[in-house]
Amino acid sequence: MEWNSATASLLVTSTLFAGLQLWWIRSLVRRNRLRRGAEPLNQQDFRQELERIFRKTT
Fold first, then answer.
1. In angstroms, rounded to a whole number, what is the distance separating the alpha carbons of residues 4 and 44?
2. In the prediction, which pLDDT does 3 show?
3. Does residue 41 contact residue 49 with C-beta atoms inside 8 Å?
4. Is the pLDDT of residue 12 over 90?
5. Domain count within the chain
6. Range of the domain at 45
7. Which residues 6+ apart lie within 8 Å of 41 measured at CB?
8. Is the pTM of this model over 0.85?
9. How many Cα neighbours within 13 Å face the side chain of 53?
10. CA–CA separation, 46 and 43 (whole Å)
11. I want to staple 46 with a disulfide (CB 3.0 to 4.6 A). Which of 12, 13, 36, 41 is the partner?
């Protein structure tokens, strides 16, 4: 396999782009987890969450 400057450039660019995507997804997940945990549930949301959990376990 012959490496030229275009192949190396494409490899570096794609690696950087993949790293940027992973960083972005992690930051979104972290932000959503913090936001969801910070808000108390109202009575209706709490009931829906319990029903979802019970449906999962049965």
1. 61
2. 74
3. yes
4. yes
5. 1
6. 5-57
7. 49
8. no
9. 6
10. 5
11. 41
DSSP reduced 3-state for 50: helix
Question: Measured in Å, how far apart are the chain's first and last C-alpha atoms?
Answer: 55
Task: Please tell me which of 2-6, 11-15, 42-46 the model is most confident about, judged by mean pLDDT.
Answer: 11-15
Sign, Cα dihedral of 15, 19, 22, 28: negative
Q: Report residue 3 as tokens.
A: 């490496």
Q: Is the dihedral of CA 23, 24, 30, 31 positive or negative?
A: positive
User: How deeply is 26 buried, as exposed, middle or buried, from its count of CB atoms within 10 A (0-12, 13-18, 19+)?
Assistant: exposed
Write the pLDDT tens digit of every residue in 16-50.
999 999 999 999 999 888 877 767 778 998 899 88
